Amino acid sequence: MSETQRICIYCGSSNNVEEHFKKAAYELGHMLAEGGYGLVYGGGSVGLMNEVAQGALDAGGEVIGVIPQKLLDLEVGRTDLTELHVVQGMHARKLKMAELAYSFIALPGGYGTLEELFEVTTWTQLHYHKKPIGILNIGGYYDHLIAFLDHANKQGFIRDLHRPLIQCSADADDLLNKLANYSIPELDQWISNP
């Protein structure tokens, strides 16, 4: 399967979350596999990471995990995946995940998920790659973050051209459609007019 058919999912690793988040993650993994998409994720066996992977596996999908050796040593990695890449550190993990995927979706998560989301968005903005990014806003989890991004745009810190770099939806089908149809702005559109 080529990278054009793979979606990288960023999401939380906590098991101490409400069941509706776990259910939505499982359903997304299942839906991606049924739709012919491969899944790239953090390789974990905990939290929403485990759920999205299990959903895809249960539907017969390709599931590629990327996990640092440190986390694998803590026994939080899955070894029943299509592929498991063990890397040396978080920077290598994020780079490998980005290399393997065509687009990115953030599910609910904490610091790590937010950091991954914003780093990959910056990479797209600066054309280190031209891959679309989305937020699946399950149960309104990201309402405040979306409002903040709009605020940062109004204050001039995120250009009008770049505000749509992060596509948002509460519906997985709608989000996939948005990602498939979004055109990344060309670099010279804003470099020449900062």
In short:
The protein has 194 residues and is an alpha/beta fold. The chain is 44% helix and 16% strand. It has one domain: Rossmann fold, CATH 3.40.50.450.
What does this protein structure show overall?
By secondary structure, the chain is of the alpha/beta class. The chain has a single domain (3-191), classed as Rossmann fold, CATH 3.40.50. It is 44% helix and 16% strand. It has helices at residues 19-34, 47-58, 69-73, 90-100, 111-125, 143-154, 172-181, 188-191; strands at residues 6-10, 38-41, 63-68, 83-87, 103-106, 133-136, 166-169. It has a 7-stranded parallel β-sheet, with helices on both faces. Helix 1 (19-34) runs parallel beside helix 2.
Main β sheet profile: 7 strands, parallel
Give the CA-CA distance, first to last residue.
Answer: 39 Å
Briefly, what CATH class?
A: Alpha Beta
Mean pLDDT across residues: 94
Query: How do the strands line up in the largest sheet?
Result: 4-3-2-1-5-6-7
The oligomeric state is single chain
Using brief descriptors, characterize the structure shown:
single chain, 7-stranded parallel β-sheet, 8 helices, 7 strands
Give the helix/strand layout.
Elements: E1 6-10, H1 19-34, E2 38-41, H2 47-58, E3 63-68, H3 69-73, E4 83-87, H4 90-100, E5 103-106, H5 111-125, E6 133-136, H6 143-154, E7 166-169, H7 172-181, H8 188-191
Helix pairs in contact: 1-2
